[in-house]
């Protein structure tokens, strides 16, 4: 039996703003299985004016993503005086597959090794979006001294949703124009409350999404649909903050249950912020409100 080849994947040009931001970054490599874990660094503040309390700020992206999930956050965080480290997680973007496994638990040891190599005994402030939030919780449950505090953004696996709240369309078998239609549908179904944002700014959201899903080599992830994060958080002793879009498609009407779930699971829970008129990709959809909430959380946790 001869299997027909899949159609060529639809691609879009790299948005100029993203290309410029990538060029401003310093690229750092740590080991990842038989390959490399790629880190991107912005805003390395040194000298007499540097803030000694401003620990490295590490941003972990979501599933089927890369550092570009933070494209609207990096400049604001650097402007606030932070040095931002945004890796491409193992199995995504420019990073190699993890040495074993294909879910959030598989990225824990490469991340732990990388953080120790980069920062030694110094902790970081850790922010995880979606899949990256689940990975961050598992990371600190296993290695609690790696972070001073944890901010979870749109994190799944809190055990409050009885069934999956969205359905995504398959796209790899489609011809290019239909692939783009499926990508638009998936962005609206999961990532963004306002579908008009998909094609704004020269199609920034669509371009980032297409580039990222093409480099996703861990497509059969399942832990996000369990209570894995809620089970990990009791082993996380540092301050934990949570920020979600109020209409996050992972939770929908169940989002009101998150406050209690976090309070029950987390030894040092500092609060949940729901950002109105924002879906799952809250830092992209409502960047100003998100940055205000994030910086306030980071400041409170540092004190």
TrEMBL record:
Transmembrane segments: none
Residues of the AB hydrolase-1 domain: 57-292
Keywords, ordered alphabetically: Hydrolase
Stored Pfam families: Abhydrolase_6
Record GO terms (molecular function): hydrolase activity
Protein name, per record: Alpha/beta hydrolase
Native source organism of the sequence: Pulveribacter suum
Organism taxonomic ancestry: Bacteria, Pseudomonadati, Pseudomonadota, Betaproteobacteria, Burkholderiales
């Amino acid at each position: 039996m001869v299997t027909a080849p899949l159609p060529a994947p639809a691609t879009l040009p790299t948005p100029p703003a993203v290309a410029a931001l990538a060029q401003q970054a310093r690229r750092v490599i740590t080991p990842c299985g038989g390959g490399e874990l790629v880190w991107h660094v912005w805003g390395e503040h040194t000298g007499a004016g540097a803030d000694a309390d401003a620990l490295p700020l590490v941003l972990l992206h979501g599933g089927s993503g890369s550092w570009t999930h933070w494209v609207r956050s990096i400049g604001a965080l650097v402007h606030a005086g932070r040095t931002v480290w945004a890796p491409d997680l193992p199995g995504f973007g420019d990073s190699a597959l993890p040495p074993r496994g294909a879910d959030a638990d598989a990225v824990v040891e490469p991340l732990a090794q990388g953080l120790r190599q980069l920062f030694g005994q110094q902790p970081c402030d850790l922010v995880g979006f979606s899949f990256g939030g689940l990975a961050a919780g598992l990371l600190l449950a296993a290695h609690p001294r790696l972070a001073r505090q944890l901010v979870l953004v749109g994190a799944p696996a809190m055990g409050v949703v009885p069934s999956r709240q969205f359905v995504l369309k398959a796209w790899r078998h489609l011809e290019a124009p239909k692939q783009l239609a499926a990508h638009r549908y998936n962005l609206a179904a999961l990532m963004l409350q306002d579908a008009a944002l998909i094609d704004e700014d020269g199609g920034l959201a669509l371009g980032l999404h297409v580039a990222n899903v093409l480099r996703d080599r861990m497509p059969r992830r399942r832990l996000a649909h369990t209570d894995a994060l809620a089970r990990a958080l009791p082993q996380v002793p540092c301050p934990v903050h949570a920020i979600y879009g109020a209409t996050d498609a992972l939770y929908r009407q169940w989002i009101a249950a998150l406050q209690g779930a976090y309070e029950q699971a987390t030894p040092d829970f500092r609060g949940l912020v729901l950002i109105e008129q924002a879906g799952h990709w809250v830092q992209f959809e409502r960047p100003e409100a998100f940055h205000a909430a994030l910086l306030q959380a980071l400041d409170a946790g540092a004190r």
